[in-house]
Amino acid sequence: MKKMTKGLACLVLVLVLACCALPGVTYGATTSVDLNQNYLFRTRTNAFSFGAGETANLTFTPQYTAEYTLKLYGHVTGGRNIRASLTNPDGTVTAFEYPNRTGSTVKDYSHPYLTATLEQGKTYTYSVWGWTATSTGATVDVDFTSGESGTLSKEVGLRLYLDQTEFTAYSQQAVLNAMKLLIVDRTGAHLEWKYKDAMGSLLVGGADVIVDLSACGACGKNTVQVHYMGYTATADFNLAHDYSVLLERVAATPTARGYDLLGCSRCSATTRANFVDYDGFCIATPGADMGALLFNDTDVTAGGRIYVDRGKDCTLLALPNSGCRFAGWQQGNKILSGDASYTFTPVASATYTPLFLDDSDRLTFLFIDPFSNVLSYQQVDSAADVKIPTPPTYTGYTFVGWSYTPTQIHSSTGSLTVQALYRAGGAKQLTITAPGCTLQCGSQTARDSLTVAYGARVTVSAADAKGFSADGRVLGYGSRYSFYAVADLALEKRTDDLTPVPSVSLLSAQLQSDTGRVMFAATRSMAGEGNRLVTSGFLYGKNLADDDLVLEMAGKPGTGTDAGTVRCAQNRSTESEGQFVLYYGISAHVGTAAARAYLTYADADGALHTVYSAVLRYTY
Questions:
Q1: Does domain 500-620 bear CATH number 2.30.30?
Q2: Which of 614, 555, 620 is nearest to 593 (CA)?
């Protein structure tokens, strides 16, 4: 509804306000209230109080001719009710209506109302008085509204716009300054009115512009109402929640993400933010039928999994059945430990398979190579049924046989672990260059460059060296650096100051023409006081992007086109310095083999860190 006000004075706090409670009067007294000055418009509010037998005269002079409705809401006490009437400018009196009138009987005098056409510029008086059944005072609420004056266009009439519709903090002044009102009369003439340009006056054409912000200030959608000459226009703005109150920090679990529960400083709304994934790993096993399995004291004999927080140790325990022996813990294609009790610090989710040898009912044959790779694991009723696998080809090594002859294998009456035997050396020659340095390999010594056999141990030295690097990555610190040759290598002497930190580098990716596999060669160096090697290895797979080759992606599909699963090959060796290789091929010889070396270490405080090499690829 629309209320008449005088100038800027009406814009106090919510801008549409009811008149203040009038002071009490003596019995039988009459109090006068100017509706134009006391803003008894639109808002049902505690308007005034009076006692039994007292009268309040509410005077009003309209700024425009229209139908006006006055509703009174009396709080009945002691059986007393409210009476009201309207005195017109010509002295005639119009009685109020009562909502519960039945014929000539009024059942409830508490809520009288009157709708009447009031003419512009004339003064009208509403009289309200309390019934004399009790002397207890009554509070009266007033709702005063008007209909449309008929002066504005029916099609357009009144339109309200806000230049700003999003607020991060509520300011009545900011909302007012954003207001723009379009007023169009019946002739089509229009006026654009802005609050910030009103120069302290809210009068337009002799009538008040009434701004109602009484419903604003809460978070979310807010509606501004503007009334002018009986017309109403609205516009909405959004008040953003201020989620600045931390109510609870919920830790991540293996099955649910962690988050902060935040509360709004302005209301009771809450939200979840700052989500974090569980920072740990899933350690799984397919189970065993030749013994019992415990993962961190959890029975997983039938298969299962446990979750281990990052930086925490995990202990795998195998308890062989009678007549069985434990052979090792297999992860991927490699045996990482031959001990029945294996404690390690996980750096990625992985599946560990226990390998047993059965000496009771059936025979078990485990074939491995010198690098702890599982070549075959077979359970047979008779040793004659064993299929001896084809030994793999390794660069720089020559296969010389098995630790048991085929005859011994096929005639065995017990389970066996059979190892492939290799001899180092062969035709593979590697070139190591290090300008300004001395290179030594066995009895060979040279300056700047040296050709050595694959797998030979090489030492490079220079009196003024503070370290040695390849492709910009530091491989070793100090004036001497020793390593096993697994690829052609161009070393650079570093004479600048270096801060020792753990590092890992992928040196080469070379195709083995006879097998179709790619040999990825890497080197690692533990450096820095208090740092301890936890593990190292490779991340690899088919058509993988650089971002796929991280420990967090191990066991998950890659994101590239026709990408395979991200695989993780963990080294069994834990020496602080060393070289290691990965043989990986795509059987169809279509696509790109990609690999990256990683090294995880614990610092002096026990915190885990992982460093990665560059990614190398070979495209078939």
A1: no
A2: 620
